[in-house]
Recover the amino acids of this structure.
């Protein structure tokens, strides 16, 4: 029973950390590194409020889902 309570406590903490999400600048840097590794150039990544991604492709969400990272070519 004690092990079950510890496991539930750890799951609760992990869920809270996941819900908080990553900081936007950190996630933006990770996405840029992946794009650069594929040899892409001439693109931009922009952090916008959720739902404000006009004219670009949403490639990530951050800050608990309140912001999005938008990819634009050219």
């Amino acid at each position: 029973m004690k092990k079950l309570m510890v496991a539930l406590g750890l799951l609760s903490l992990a869920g809270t950390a996941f819900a908080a999400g990553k900081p936007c600048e950190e996630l933006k840097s990770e996405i840029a590194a992946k794009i650069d590794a594929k040899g892409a150039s001439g693109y931009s990544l922009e952090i916008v409020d959720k739902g404000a991604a006009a004219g670009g492709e949403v490639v990530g969400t951050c800050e608990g889902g309140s912001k999005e990272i938008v990819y634009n070519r050219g």
User: Anything to note?
Assistant: Residues 1-19 have pLDDT under 50 and may be disordered. The chain has one domain: 21-73. Residues 21-73 form one domain. The longest strand covers residues 43-49.
